[in-house]
Design a protein that fits this description.
Blueprint lengths: L19 H7 L3 E6 L7 H10 L2 E4 L5 H4 L9 H12 L3 E8 L6 H6 L5 H15 L6 E6 L16 H6 L3 H12 L4 E6 L7 H19 L6 E4 L2 E3 L8 H12 L3 E10 L7 H19 L5 E6 L8 H5 L21 H11 L6
The site of ligand G3I has 8 residues, from loops.
């Protein structure tokens, strides 16, 4: 297997090393990953991150429960650490996220009611997006607002935000984000939008309706994030639904970011070579398809190395073996997935 030199990147130094960062740059794209505060303390990891990523996003550190731990208390330490790192390494920074039904702090659940929830949302967004104004490439303003299983005709998730504020909470959030940071690309972010299955097709239709409603309500939305948590066991696909969907999103003049890409190998046999090959094949196939669309401007994986993937803490394999869902292994060595991503990034058709 080819090896990738992992060395620190001097500020301003021209990078022509086959890194994912450099390969993406040559194709007019951004490539990067989610990062945790813990990983930022590890200098071997940060060297890899500096070399490979032109855009980073905090995995948990800008979510409500971390950044807003008390009703009148904000904790920007971990988010600021990533912002400082990104600036020092000339990387863009995504913000994730301003409004979600998960990872809300305990105080919120005790204090929030139908009378104050909208104001709590506005204040949070004003404080957090205001704190980072000018430093953020794009904000995930609202995350995962659609859940078809909840059975509503508009597809909206029966979340605490819907319950306390009503369907208008999305427009409220986008308007507050725009007021706090006029430069960040304001993004709606969701999952299960990729596969050719009735479930994903229904979700795509609901997201399209949501985007159209936001636009017609004058909500300042500029981008869609497709999370892209893929499953290796899904095998090859024509991606017909995804192509149609991306054409429609492009016609709405929205940018698209692949925000949380990883390939879950939970259902593959244990053999590492076979698993890595199938994971890489899906990375390559998916990215070759998605990157045909000019509206796609950035690709981020949800973590850079298998050592720190959320998939290893949350959904273990039945045989107990560690999962291998990301481009680098636990020793920070490039895997076949790295080369598949590199090839797909390099083959992105150039802008005419
Ligand atoms: O840091 C605490 C630790 O102090 C405590 O002892 C431990 C006990 O459970 O929890 C630790 O926090 C956990 C945190 O991850 C850090 O590992 C939280 O419990 C856990 O809930 C949290 O999970 C995160 C998950 O979102 C929560 O919904 C994952 O790291 C994170 O990768 C994941 O990211 C989401 C995106 O935000 C949105 N899209 C889906 C994606 C994957 O689920």
């Amino acid at each position: 297997m080819k090896t990738v030199a992992i060395a620190g990147t001097a500020r301003g130094q021209a990078i022509e090393d086959g890194s994912l960062r450099e390969t993406a740059t040559r194709s007019g794209l951004l490539f990067g990953s989610a990062v945790s505060y813990r990983e930022l303390q590890d200098s071997t990891f940060t060297s890899l991150l500096a070399r490979q990523a032109s855009i980073v996003v905090p995995e948990n550190e800008m979510k409500w429960e971390r950044i807003h731990p008390g009703p009148n208390r904000y904790d920007f330490k971990a988010g600021d650490a990533l912002a400082t790192f990104a600036e020092a390494h000339e990387q863009k920074l995504r913000g994730h996220n301003l409004c979600w039904h998960r990872q809300l702090p305990p105080w919120f659940k005790q204090l929030a009611n139908a009378g104050n929830a909208q104001e709590l949302l506005r204040t949070h967004i004003s404080e957090v997006a205001g704190h980072y104004a000018g430093k953020i490439h794009s904000w995930d303003v609202v995350n995962e607002a659609i859940n078809i299983e909840d059975g509503r005709p508009d597809g909206l998730r029966k979340s605490i935000w819907l319950e306390l504020v009503g369907p208008d909470y999305l427009a409220v959030a986008f308007k507050a984000a725009s007021a706090a940071d006029g430069k960040a690309v304001l993004t709606y972010n969701d999952y299960d939008l990729e596969q050719d299955s009735p479930k994903h097709e229904a979700k795509r239709a609901a997201v399209l309706k949501l985007l159209a409603t936001l636009q017609s309500n004058g909500a300042p939305i500029q981008a869609l994030g497709i999370q892209s948590h893929l499953k290796a066991s899904q095998g090859r696909s024509e991606w017909t639904g995804l192509h149609r969907f991306l054409n429609k999103v492009e016609a709405m003049k929205l940018q698209v970011f692949v925000t949380e890409l990883d390939v879950n190998d939970a259902d593959l046999p244990g053999n590492i070579e076979e698993r890595d090959r199938d994971v890489a094949a899906l990375y390559g196939d998916f990215l070759h398809q998605v990157l045909q669309h000019r509206c796609v401007k950035a690709v981020l994986t949800w973590g850079l190395t298998d050592r720190d993937s959320w998939l290893n803490s949350f959904k273990p394999r039945a045989d107990g073996l560690p999962k291998r869902p990301l481009p680098f292994d636990s020793n920070m060595q490039a895997k076949p997935a790295f080369y598949a991503i590199q090839e797909a990034l390099s083959q992105r058709p150039r802008t005419p």
